[in-house]
Amino acid sequence: MSQIVYVNGDFVPAAEAKVSVFDRGFLMADAVYEVTSVIGGKIIDFDGHATRLQRSMSELEMVSPVTMDELLQIHRDIIEKNNLVEGGIYLQITRGAPDVRDFAWPDPEEVPCGIVLFTFDKPLVDSKVMDEGIKVISIADERWGRRDIKTTQLLYPSFAKMQAKKKGCQDAWLVEDGFVTEGTANNAYIVKNGTIITRQLGNDILHGITRAAILRFALEAQMKVEERPFTIAEAQEADEAFVTSATGFAQPVIEIDGAQIGTGIPGDISKRLREIYTEEMIKAAI
Ligand code: PLP
């Protein structure tokens, strides 16, 4: 069965899904996106992703082409049309396609935002990474300053990930003014003496939907949480490290810039948080 994609109101086979070369998402990365995971054909934390999407659009003065109820229905329809059981839904809203390339934004009354969704299969619950953990490098954070808005400007994170791959690692932790901001596509954490430490929210990191849930579950499980910046040196001395994202859940980090973290195998707190997250999110899936 060919993949079915949603483009501006229509469900079409992927090969027929087209957007204009004048689309500002294509020309200027003038677009926001969300990735939401699906387990057992159900959506994980739709409300969290829909709320962040609305915030991203409002920060950039974009007018949503759909209501959030319509968006939920589109998510359900695309799951069904692709027989998606486990994996994710990628959603992108762009500022549309005016006739001319211009730095100034078009009038939203004349040029409506465009919307595209597609699905992908990915094993989420049983993940090899969970048993093995990942290795990361550190690299300067050279992204723009509004990382709290989930835009499609992903060239620097993509560049950073390639630097990690060249060094035999799976990801990079980004460092600004001596402190870790986050991973290329995830939020970063360390654990020291039972306390979970992660950077506080601000414009310098994406407000991870998984991060919010993980911290909530950690507090409910009586774990200690500190929201503050940490350095690579502190991370290398930590007992555990891990990252969180919608399709990665919580993934242990076992090496940072060549230094083994803790015992060099996924830590107990990271594992426990992943278990709780998986269980609770499956229960709440819609
Ligand atoms: N930080 C960045 C830069 C990301 O790109 C992502 C996800 O794509 C995250 C954090 C994790 O966010 P979420 O948990 O909402 O997937």
UniProtKB/TrEMBL annotation:
Organism: Pacificibacter marinus
Protein name: Probable branched-chain-amino-acid aminotransferase
A cellular component term, taken from the record's GO annotations: cytosol
Family according to the record: Belongs to the class-IV pyridoxal-phosphate-dependent aminotransferase family.
Gene: dat
E.C. no: 2.6.1.42
Catalytic reaction equation(s): L-isoleucine + 2-oxoglutarate = (S)-3-methyl-2-oxopentanoate + L-glutamate; L-valine + 2-oxoglutarate = 3-methyl-2-oxobutanoate + L-glutamate; L-leucine + 2-oxoglutarate = 4-methyl-2-oxopentanoate + L-glutamate
Ribosomal protein is among the record's keywords: no
GO biological process: amino acid biosynthetic process; branched-chain amino acid biosynthetic process
